[in-house]
Amino acid sequence: MKSDRGRTVFNLTLFIAVVLLCGWVGYGINNLLDVPQEDSPGMLFWLIAPLITAMLLRAVGGDGWRDAGLKPNMKGNLIWYGIALLVFPVLTATVVFIGVGAGWISLNGFELPVFFQAFALALIPNFLKNIPEEFVWRGYLTPKLASLKLNDFVLYLLVGLIWGLWHIPYYLYFLDRGIVSEFTDVSFNGFVTLSLMITIAWSVVFVELWLLTRSVWPAVLMHMVEDAFVNPLVLDGSFRIADGMDLLIHPVVGIVSILLFVLLGLSLRQIRLRQAQRYNR
Predict the structure, then answer these.
(1) Which residue, of 104, 165, 208, 269, has the greatest Cβ tally within 10 A?
(2) Which of 236, 233, 249, 245 is nearest to 99 (CA)?
(3) Beta-carbon contacts of residue 276 (< 8 Å; ≥ 6 apart)
(4) Per-residue pLDDT tens for 80-106?
(5) Residue in 160, 171, 226 with CA at minimum distance from that of residue 196
(6) How open is the CA angle 70-73-77, to the nearest 5 degrees?
(7) Average pLDDT, stretch 170-188?
(8) Is the model's pTM score more than 0.70?
């Protein structure tokens, strides 16, 4: 009979293998069926394989549901829910403010009421879309890795790297490259490389909010706002970044944005550690 740690390591290894392989398997499925890669059976397999694996490991693989973060745990944690809702708007606005002030970003023609209408309409669809995704990354991967008592920085790195590597087949095969070119003028290969840095940086904040609340719901809300707020802004034709400046000041792939997320995540870590010290006195 496996020890609890041994079972966790075995199940995590199986889960990570599925995550890293499912996109490539999906690409192969589409080739066998001779269908386009976008909106395809292979893409669907890539999307649902991690979720089904996590659910099976919890239901019949011995992991159970106790650390899945299904409860909101809102008592005493409302501040973290507020931060989850505000992270992307505030940090994105900060990047835009810096960019406009330096003359790197132009908002000529930008209409705030139109943007907010698009943002509001996108909230519910993105809330529903991010429930299954966050139940994978913050509802399974994060708590299982955290249960191994890993160093915080190793935890951020592993969660972000595995999350990011899962996206690679999506960028290579399932996503229309025209959308990437509309999103940023960084080269496609540069975008794919930066995507790993982004998921690692974002994971510092996502992981810390999970550690502070032990609930998956702040991550669902945070991811919902990201999709509803940032994407419409960047893809809006009136939002312009000066040529060659995306790598520095883009609200997603820019170095300034990445550093701001790391700084915020590490600040949350300091708050959590201070809370733990007070609790242990």
Answers:
(1) 208
(2) 249
(3) none
(4) 999 999 999 999 999 999 999 999 999
(5) 160
(6) 140
(7) 93
(8) yes
